[in-house]
Amino acid sequence: MAMIIIAIAIFGIGLTFWYSPAQLINRSSEGLTASCDHVITEVTQLYPSGAEPHYQVNNPDLLQQVMYRETGKIQGVEGGYWHVASEFFGYAFPTYVGSSIKTDVPQSEMALLSALSRQAVDESNTLTSVRQSEDAAVITVACPINTHRGLAAWLMKRTSLLPNTLVWLSFGIFGVLAVLGTMLLVLNRNFEKGWLTEREKLTEQLNDETAPVPTTTVINDVQPFLLLLYQARQKRHNAERAINSLEAKLGQINELSVVGRAALAFAEELRGRIEQLQRDVTAVVTDTSTLQFEKLQRELDAAEYLCQALAQIDVRHKKQGPVAEVHMNRWTRTLADFHQQRHANDRQTIAAVCDGDITISTNPLLLRFTLDILILHSLKFGPQEGEIFIRAAKQDDHMILEMVDENPSVKRNVEQNLFRFDDVIPEQYGDGLRLVKDLVSSLKGSIEFQSNGEISRFILKIPMTS
Question: Which CATH number applies to 323-463?
Fold first, then answer.
């Protein structure tokens, strides 16, 4: 809108300037001067070049035809010739509009035309005369013609003028419009600048998810959207809190599930120990040898260990768990010997090696139980002859435990779901190892499985301090 007002003001000022008296007179004077030059050119072409100027006008009709053609090109122009000897002749006014017929020089202008023509002849130059009133102007031009001595052509035009008061009033009106348009443009630019600044500020605030959504702004059109965004973000925050609460509950349920599954596994082991104790007690009753008493003592120690393990199996409190330093060189050999003596058959061999003297701080109960499950799993479902190899090595701030058996292959669907499901009574290699992954996670570690078609490898990565 401001630009339209400014454009109208500029157009009005330009139009007023174009039709101002000074500009009208100036344009008319220039037009008459150009026409007078054309008359001189055409008259000169009627006579041989280089000829001496004539003292008398012998062919006035020919000169009048030239004047008639030239004055017919501009509306409201009358013209003729003036000669020092014959005075006025060759009058023409082809564009005259009126009821009477004009065939001669206006009587009221004869003195002016005669004096101006004589002066033009004397000075050998084109002269212009302007007589101006409040609402009109008479513009006269006289130019000497060099083909005759004392001959001049004259042209005259009457022009209506706008009153100066009207011109200045128009200038004032359109000037005020220009000022108003400029003020509106400045205000509009300032508003746009403020709007852009506010928009950038809002964009920065809205991009910050942690910052509250502003509910007030100087941009009125954005206000409803801010309120909607505020409500949407509040709903999202409420949903996130609800999801976090559910995730926390699910985490607790998962931890309890790990506790229950580990406790169940220990209970099964303890039941087997108790059954073995019953058999050993029966044997002691019949055979009181020292060897039987020592065997009974070992079984009692193992049962006591399992009872202690069952009491400490709550993995929900990792920071309060039974963390101790484990010397991996001795620990892995003891683990291998234990399973070699108790669970391996005559054609299965369990070996362990440790690369260097490695000591880690972890929960030995959970680490032992994790390896127990993997070793028993390989002994039961792996090849019934061959070697199970356990290797411990240090890598940066972690301990890498590898358990390798000679199981040649695992079904593709079993390998993909190796650590995803529980199975209390697994039926094949790879079933029911979800508990192993959860126990390793409780130690802040990770586990992966690799198979190359000839051997299978479980790789545990556990922090040196977990």
Answer: 3.30.565.10
